[in-house]
Amino acid sequence: MRGIIRNFRKNKRTAFTVSAVGAAMLYGAVAGFSVDQRARAALDWVALPQVDFTPAPTRPQFADIHDDMVEVTSADSLHDVLDDTGYALRQIRRGDSRVPRLLVESLPEDFDDQMVVEARKRTFIRTVLPLILKANEEVRLERRRLIDLEEQIISGHELSDDDQDWLDRLAEKYDAAPGDFAALLRRVDTVSPTLALAQAIEESGWGRSRFARDGNALYGQRAWSVGTGFVPAERADGERFEVRAFDSLLDSVRSYVVNLNRHYAYEDYRVTRAQMRARDTQLNAGELAQTLISYSERREAYVDALLGLIRTNQLDDFEVAQLSSEPFDVGRDGIASR
């Protein structure tokens, strides 16, 4: 490949560029690439798209919208708030409307009380889906800026101190080198909303677990620092982990997204997602679920459970759901906000 590799080193600024011919050849190679263990381990393996081939004027712009968190005091009030917005899953499934930017801070304490099964499912999905889309929106903003910085370096411009500081922080967040744009853009990418919903359902028991209600923990993420979460009743003798608690449901979703995007155990997820991107296809939650065998000690049984949830609840209808571009008016009808 006629790739042209250039290293720019000045005040910690490091980057590489690939010629248009080389990038096109590499794109084709990745699109038909069957990933094996040796290829995954190769330090120079690049999963495209690490370069945005869309002409600049037509690139989508993602607005950085400030969203207030909504507080609810009971399961009934949560149901009422969701209904009052006209938020109907049927319309979302058909693609007839966007998901409102209604970000619920925490599940109410009585969410584990008796509810009609289908009503609980609808309420849980309507609560969690906007949070997933909001977290993905934040990742898109990071990715857009990351691509812009890469293009600055490719064009021979030096990054400002603010841009370099931002890049350093982003690299630390995603556990990659600041100058390795290929590795960063494999990691700074959105997750499958379908699979994120399925895992939230499985890990929280449709929101009924005490970890979800008392600690905003939707994904059962573990922590090894004493006092940072809850000790699960089924924890084996000698184990020290806790189920991590979060300040809000959105923080739990954000942590889940970063976890999938940086932890070594989910490299297969990122590789599979990159191949789908290279083929310019919609993310396939079923295929991605197969890569999460290490997420749970149940391994294959856990993956089977996720696939069952996706199929039974038709969660793949939400894969291309879009968040509304209009901020949610938390002042309406006396809705409390933070």
Q: In words, what does this structure look like?
A:
This protein has one domain (about 20-335): Lysozyme. It is globular, with a radius of gyration of 21 Å. Helix 5 packs across helix 10 and helix 8 (about 195-205) packs across helix 13 (about 300-310). The protein has about 350 residues and is mainly α. The strands form three sheets. The chain has a three-stranded mixed sheet. A three-stranded antiparallel sheet has the order 4-6-5, with no helix packed on it. Strands 2-7 form a two-stranded parallel sheet. Mean pLDDT is about 80; it is low at about 1-60. It contains 13 helices and eight strands.
SS-based structural class? Answer: mainly alpha
Largest sheet: 3 strands, mixed
Mean pLDDT: 78
- Give me the strand/helix succession: HHEHHEEHHHHHEEEHHHHEE
Strand content: 5-15%
Please count the helical segments. 13
Q: Count of DSSP E strands?
A: 8
Identify the CATH class. Answer: Mainly Alpha
